[in-house]
Amino acid sequence: MVKKLRFFKIILDDENLLYFPGTFLTGKVVLELDEDMPIVGLFFHIIGECVVQLLGSGGIVSGDKENYIDFRMRLLGDNLTRVDTQSTLNLNASMSRLLVLSAGVHTFPFRLGLPLGLPSTFLGKHGWVQYFCKAELRDPNGLVHKNHQVFIIMNPIDLNQEPSLLTQPFHSEIEEKLGFLCFTNGKIICRVRLDRGGYVPGESISINANIDNNSSAKIRKTCAILTETVQYTSKNRIIQSEVRELASVEKGKIEPNSSDQWR
Predict the structure, then answer these.
(1) Are residues 149 and 163 in the same domain?
(2) How many other C-beta atoms can be found within 10 angstroms of the C-beta atom of residue 208?
(3) Reported pTM
(4) Could you say which of 111, 130, 153 is where a domain stops?
(5) Do residue 85 and residue 204 come from a single domain?
(6) Spatial separation of the C-alpha atoms in residues 247 and 226, rounded to whole Å
(7) In a shared domain, residues 35 and 91
(8) Distance from C-alpha of 38 to C-alpha of 59, rounded to nearest angstrom
C-alpha cells in the first residue's frame, strides 16, 4: 500500500507560514497516487499549545501544558469510517464504507478562523508556544500515513493600549562606591533616561546617559545591553527564569575624575 502513495503533504497558502490572530488559516492537503487506493478516511487536526518543561537528571521535574487551538475536521470519509488506530479494523463490517481514491492528484482545501488573543509563537530553553497542523490518511490495512506542518503566529503589541508607557519617560540612577574596607577611591554615578517606557520591534531606542567617574580608577568601557527576561510558569508558580541578550552597544574608556555622555 505504501508504494501507491507518491506524495502526501500539507501546503499552506501563505508561503511565509505567518498568520495573525483573527485571520484565516487556509491551505490544502495534497495527495498523489500511482494507482487506485482504498482508504478509510483523511483526517485533519490543527493544534496550538504552550508547553513548559523543567528537566533534571532523572527526566522531567516539573511541567505544564495549555491548549489554545484543538480543532479536528474530517476532509474525506463519514462518521462511520473513523477507526481507532489502537484497535483492529473489521474489514467485513467496514468494506462497504471504504472509499477508493483514483490514481492521480487529489486536493482537499481547509479554512479555519484563528481565535483572537492567541500568543505569539515562542521557543525557549524550558518551554515553547507552538502551532501546527497534522494530516492522517488511514487505509484498510491499519496503516496511517502522516504529515505535519508548523505555522507561525505573531500577535503584535499595540502600545496605544498602554498610554502610560508612551507618555512617561524612563529614568534610572545608580551610584557605585569604590574602595576596600575603610579606604575609598571615590564613586561612579550613572544616570540613564529614555524618552518613554515602551517600544515595539523595529523601533530604535535612543539612550541618554551621563556617567560621572568621580574616582581614581579608570573605566575601561561602558556598555548598554537590551535583555529579555522569560519566566516559565507551571501550576501557577514560576519554576524557572531565563535572561537573553538581544542587542548591545559599547563606548570607550572614561579616565579618573572625568565624565562621558551617551546621546
Answers:
(1) no
(2) 14
(3) 0.77
(4) 153
(5) no
(6) 5
(7) yes
(8) 43
Per-residue pLDDT tens over the stretch 94-130: 444 788 889 999 999 999 999 999 999 999 989 999 9
Q: Which residue has the cell 572614561?
A: 254
Q: Are residues 88 and 210 in the same domain?
A: no
Q: Cell numbers 551610584 label which residue?
A: 175
Q: Which three cell numbers stand for residue 36?
A: 487506485
39 and 106 co-located in one domain: yes
Could you list the beta-strand ranges (E) of the chain: 5-12, 18-19, 24-33, 37-39, 41-56, 59-76, 99-101, 104-113, 122-123, 127-138, 144-153, 170-180, 183-194, 208-215, 222-234, 237-251, 258-262
Quote the cell numbers at residue 41: 478516511
Per-residue pLDDT of 91-103, as tens digits, reads 444 444 788 889 9
Residue that is last in its domain, among 121, 153, 185: 153
Parent domain of 20: 2-153
